[in-house]
Design a protein that fits this description.
- The chain is an alpha/beta fold.
- Helices cover 43% and strands 12% of the residues.
- It has one domain.
- It has a 6-stranded mixed beta sheet.
- The longest helix has 17 residues.
- It is globular and about 55 Å long.
- It starts with a strand and ends in a 17-residue tail after the last helix.
- InterPro entries: DUF429 (IPR007362).
Length: 248
């Protein structure tokens, strides 16, 4: 089986793509940074499942607000204090991630994460036109993943590993991951992941995708299933470490 992880940026040059192959053993088949739209579509089409590190949808109340505002039919709120704005900024899954991990995901409504999310919206439409099930709740071929929160679930370093200034922290995190996954063949890509956080996040995304496929992540509850189909759902590992191949 092939599990693909994508660390999606607004531009191709910062987009990481990792492919994990499972055929009795587990190995990194490919890790690249610089994924174009065509590269990503091809990788997703070849994969059994793909995990994308980007919000797959906008908060339902925010979508309603923008539509009503555009039509000039927005009802005046009793107050525009922070509670009202927070409901527009955060998705149901964002609040659940915060509840479980203490980490607050970037807001697709109010932060720069919207730029890669816009790119994903275009890719989602392209994949849907090609007949792929890209349902945002993870019931199709794509899972939404969040590497930092997954690392937190695995009790690994989840902050201070991004960018050139955190090279030492990133190398230490790679060493932690190697120790936790002695059954994973890094196939020569360990140094790339230590140098480039986009490559590393893509690898983590692929590992979390495998966990979600194996049933080792938390799905949306029945109560949240409908809203997850619109907003997306971040799949967080439920186990304390990634699942070895022999434990399937």
């Amino acid at each position: 089986m092939l599990f693909v992880g994508i660390d999606l940026a607004a531009e191709a040059r910062r987009t990481g793509v990792a492919v994990v192959r499972e055929d009795g053993a587990l190995s990194l088949e490919q890790v690249d940074v610089g994924g174009s739209d065509d590269d990503l579509v091809a990788a997703i089409e070849a994969a059994d499942r793909t995990g994308v590190d980007v919000p797959l949808g906008w908060p339902a109340p925010f979508v309603d607000l923008v539509s009503a505002h555009a039509a000039g039919t927005l009802s005046a709120p009793a107050s525009t204090e922070s509670g009202w704005r927070r409901n527009l900024a955060m998705r149901t899954t964002d609040r659940e991630v915060h509840r479980r991990t203490g980490i607050t995901p970037l807001s697709i409504s109010t932060d720069r994460i919207a730029y890669p999310a816009l790119r994903w919206a275009g890719l989602e439409a392209r994949l849907r036109d090609r007949g792929f099930d890209v349902t945002r709740d993870g019931s199709g071929m794509v899972f939404e993943v969040y590497p930092a929160a997954a690392l937190r679930c695995w009790s690994l370093t989840h902050r201070g590993y991004k960018g050139a200034k955190n090279a030492a922290g990133r190398s230490a995190l790679v060493a932690e991951l190697v120790k936790m996954t002695p059954w994973l063949d890094w196939n020569g890509y360990r140094e790339l992941c230590a140098r480039d956080d986009d490559a590393l996040d893509a690898v983590i995304a692929a590992l979390v995708t495998r966990e979600a496929f194996l049933g080792s992540c938390e799905p949306p509850s029945d109560e949240n299933r409908e809203v997850a189909r619109q907003e997306g759902w971040i799949w967080l590992p439920s186990g304390r470490r990634p699942t070895p191949p022999t434990m399937r």
